[in-house]
Amino acid sequence: MRYDGQMIDTSRTRRAVTLDEATAILARTPATLDALLRGLPDGWIHAHEGGETWSPFDVIGHLIHGEQTDWVPRAKIILEHGEARPFDKFNRLAQFAESAGRTLPELLDEFSALRRKSLDELASLHLTDAALDKRGRHPELGVVTLRQLLSTWVAHDLDHVVQISRVLARQYTDEVGPWRAYLRVISGTQG
Amino acid sequence: MRYDGQMIDTSRTRRAVTLDEATAILARTPATLDALLRGLPDGWIHAHEGGETWSPFDVIGHLIHGEQTDWVPRAKIILEHGEARPFDKFNRLAQFAESAGRTLPELLDEFSALRRKSLDELASLHLTDAALDKRGRHPELGVVTLRQLLSTWVAHDLDHVVQISRVLARQYTDEVGPWRAYLRVISGTQG
Hints:
The structure is a homodimer of 191-residue chains. With 191 residues, the first copy, chain A, is mainly alpha-helical. Chain A has helices spanning 19-37, 42-45, 56-69, 71-81, 94-98, 104-124, 129-132, 146-170, 184-187; strands at 2-3, 6-7, 135-138, 142-145. The first copy, chain A, has nine helices and four strands.
């Protein structure tokens, strides 16, 4: 595309959300996290970045809570009520009670099953391009579209893959020595 | 641990590298990337962040080149030559020629096979804790230890999982609308 005489190639840096491309990512997240985390020693699973930050174990619980209360439930609220009924607030800390006493393999299995169910429900809504323009009301962000909700679901999955990988990598912050300069995940150099 | 009267819990934020814990991550990277990428539409596979940045396809080629020329080869140079022989320089752009004309499934298969071979070779070195203290010479960073090389291998894998996930997520930078404020992977808020 050409703006003001300058060539800007956006063809590989931005995509318009489509149901097919979005669900291609959403369907892969459980297997990705399973491959990364199942069977890892506990020290990795419960690692975090200090203070109130989350471990890989905490993140899987958060993703489970999202399947139960966030993505498809909010899509249905948009389709049934539009802007008239704001979404329920999402509890970002639900996993600390809900995951207590459970094992990581249990949580991975549950996330995988819930995600499959979510994608089945999403498919059953037969969303058209026009439906993706429908508007709902976020309790804090205000008016949002179903298209924005769907793309946020995808980006949110990937954000947590980033987070888990970062938490794990940073465990070796001291161990990598001078290589720290080359590792953006550890140096924190802006991506 | 207590420093200057302040409690700092480092038990979940830093780990000392061990061969078992490091290889637990290294062994999982090919399956993680396979689960995330295999079968995705080409638009995702060749997405990047603009300019000279890398796509998921480029990153897998880079990881292949690392198996061939970086990690185990450098470990052997340390064990055989110590600081006397600096490592060969790593070619960060090798994948642009080497991956040309190939498909992502081929690259994923090759990375997986090479990683298995690397881990077999690593195991055959029977590295002790004392061996991990052995020193070599990086052409730019100077003296490094085998322990630092091993932990960097792990962090480097995870850094590229972060990168691939970030590249994918940022394709929806415009699509997520007001949710951008909540998505660190898109807003670029420091992790």
